[in-house]
Amino acid sequence: MRKILILIALSCAVLFAASVFTAETTKPSMAKWQISGDLTEACSCGVPCTCNFGQQPSPEEHCWALASLAIVKGKYEGINLDGLHLAVGTAKNGTVWYVDDTATPAQFDALKAMSDHMRSKLVSFWKGVDPKVIEDPQFKILAVKRAPITQQVGDKGNQLQIGTFGGFESDYLIGLDGKTPIVLLNNWSWNLAQSIKGKTKRLYYKDEYGNSFDLKDTNANQGKFDWNDQTPIYFR
């Protein structure tokens, strides 16, 4: 009887080890991706956005925003993403991601997966700092959808248009010399080496989920990004 129990125990141990080995060896690896280009963004905060300096939103308690990544060079697991856009609109009821309407089905899926990965890093950050933050409805993903996205970066300002949902136009803030834009290094909110500070002429957004705002004279940013799947955090 004792020999039978030992054999049963050994068999269970072997089966357990085999299941663990199978689970580990069949676990899908994280997708490899890399994108670089221009980030164009504006939010509801005053100029300059206090969030960019690690402070609370101002003058309101919220920070609603529109942003877009113009991907100059990009690849997701071998899928070419050059020339595409990935935009986002966020307000009181949640967040909507917008994928360039020119994207193929494979490119759409790649950009959607990247947006999920970026958000996971955002949620992970706030869970470690203040878990209550991610309880805000603004953190809820309402949809990922297609839209025509137009993003313009100029010498004196920037513009963004996300279909009929919204957009903004801003002028860069000029520094002491009267000709050079003010630049912020190591922006707390966006993972950019440097960002040009701007002021919106108009910032507006409206979607089918109850998000709506129409503002002016608010904060704007313009900068170069270079992100990949190993980047610790993309924005916060």
Based on the model shown, name its key terms.
13 strands, 13-stranded mixed β-sheet, about 20% helix, disordered N terminus, alpha+beta, globular, about 40% strand, single chain, about 240 residues
General description of the model:
- This protein is an alpha+beta fold and 236 residues long.
- It has one domain.
- It is 21% helix and 40% strand.
- The protein has 2 helices and 13 strands; from the N terminus they run H-E-E-E-E-E-H-E-E-E-E-E-E-E-E.
- Strands 1, 2, 3, 4, 5, 6, 7, 8, 9, 10, 11, 12 and 13 form a 13-stranded mixed β-sheet that branches.
- The longest helix has 25 residues.
Brief write-up:
With 236 residues, this protein is α+β, with helices and mostly antiparallel strands.
Topology of helices and strands:
Elements: H1 2-26, E1 33-43, E2 65-76, E3 79-80, E4 85-91, E5 94-100, H2 105-129, E6 141-147, E7 149-153, E8 157-162, E9 166-172, E10 183-185, E11 194-206, E12 212-215, E13 219-228
Parallel strand pairs: 5-6
Antiparallel strand pairs: 1-2, 1-13, 2-3, 2-4, 4-5, 7-8, 8-9, 9-11, 10-11, 11-12, 11-13
The tally of domains stands at 1
Helix content: 10-25%
- List how many beta strands DSSP finds: 13
* Main β sheet profile: 13 strands, mixed
Q: Determine the structural class based on helices, strands and strand pairing.
A: alpha+beta
Mean pLDDT: 90
Low-confidence stretches: 1-28
How large is the share of residues in beta strands?
A: 35-45%
> Helical region count?
2
Straight-line distance between termini:
62 Å
Please tell me how large the radius of gyration is. 22 Å
Shape: globular
Order of helix and strand elements from N to C terminus: HEEEEEHEEEEEEEE
